[in-house]
Specification:
The structure is a single chain. This protein has helices spanning 12-31, 39-56, 133-137, 141-144, 147-154, 158-175, and strands at 108-115, 125-132. 2% of the residues are buried. 41% of the residues lie in helices and 9% in strands. It is rod-shaped, with a radius of gyration of 43 Å. It is mostly helical. It is built from 6 helices and 2 strands, in the order H-H-E-E-H-H-H-H.
């Protein structure tokens, strides 16, 4: 540690901090009028100061240098990403979107209703109903949806909820 490079830097006061603390302590003990020191205590204090200077070796207690500016850490090399091939889904007739207004009224269609998480204890659900195209064209299902029905449906598993909603739709269509 005694062999320091000149390019290294540290705060200049930090080099003499410990020496200054001890020197100030010894000076305040000798020059303080409130503390009366006897001659033997004063001689012991002088011996302690000399012993401290001999044993302290200030050059060994210099702070570690802090080079300016610090080098930027090297970035770890990126790992090559392996691409996974996804099997392409082929759309079946049930998965294709068809505009209900272009269909005949008596054609059976799958009508999907997405119910978002409107209450904290709900989960997002998509319910597929099998209805006639004229029900979709005239938007008759909207009249059926209310908070009471939604609360009942959202507490059930998806299959049971779909069955309950389908039965309500069927009851409404029979009542017409």
């Amino acid at each position: 540690m005694a062999n320091r490079k000149k390019t290294e830097s540290w705060i200049s006061e930090s080099r003499s901090f410990f020496t200054d603390v001890m020197t100030d302590t010894f000076t305040s003990l000798r020059g303080n009028d409130l503390i009366e020191i006897s001659r033997t205590e004063e001689s012991q204090l002088e011996k302690l100061e000399k012993l401290w200077l001999i044993n302290y070796k200030p050059l060994e207690h210099l702070p570690e240098s802090n080079p300016c500016p610090l080098p930027k850490p090297k970035r770890a090399p990126r790992k090559p990403q392996t691409r996974t091939t996804c099997a392409k889904k082929t759309e079946t007739e049930a998965d294709k979107y068809v505009d209900a207004n272009t269909l005949d009224d008596n054609v059976d269609i799958v009508y999907r209703i997405n119910i978002p998480r409107l209450r904290p204890h709900w989960r997002h659900s998509s319910i597929d109903l099998k209805i006639k195209a004229h029900v979709c064209k005239n938007n008759l299902i909207e009249q059926l949806i209310n908070w009471e029905l939604l609360d009942g449906i959202m507490e059930l598993p998806l299959e049971e909820a779909t069955a309950l909603f389908q039965s309500r739709v069927d009851e409404m269509l029979l009542a017409e």
